[in-house]
């Protein structure tokens, strides 16, 4: 079950967002180190939280977060998930949710119910 969910989630993200938005691979890699550091922050008690200041420019944040999730695809294959992989998945998905929540709030404040679609491709 975990394998199917993880593979579907990673496939959805990498198949939809990265190619659709046409993000140059070298550009993504050069901007992503700070996001990798944010989701791999060492803590035994809590899942690392990506700082809001890194999520403000979601056009940069999204491809980096997707790359992080994509890098976990080989770790999401067994019946159990390592604590490290679980932490990274939880951290990145919380960042995705934060981005979508902010876009939705902005849309609602502007009275525009369809602008969140810009999340899929900028």
Give a quick summary of the entry.
This protein is 65% helix and 0% strand. The chain has 122 residues and is mainly α.
Tell me what the structure shows.
Helices cover 65% and strands 0% of the residues. It has one domain (2-119). It starts with a helix and ends in a 12-residue tail after the last helix. It contains 6 helices and no strands. 22% of the residues are buried. Helix 1 (2-21) packs across helix 5 (58-70) and helix 5 runs antiparallel to helix 6 (83-110). Mean pLDDT is 75; it is low at 1-10 and 14-24.
Mind sketching the topology for me?
Elements: H1 2-21, H2 25-31, H3 33-39, H4 52-55, H5 58-70, H6 83-110
Helix pairs in contact: 1-5, 5-6
- Number of helices, counting only DSSP H or I runs of 4 residues or more: 6
Largest sheet: none
Q: Provide the number of structural domains.
A: 1
Low-confidence stretches: 1-10, 14-24
What class would the helix/strand composition place it in?
mainly alpha
Give the rounded overall mean pLDDT: 75
Strand content: under 5%
**Rg over CA atoms:** 15 Å
Shape: elongated
Head-to-tail CA distance between termini: 33 Å
Number of strands: 0
Helix content: 55-70%
Q: What is the H-and-E element order?
A: HHHHHH
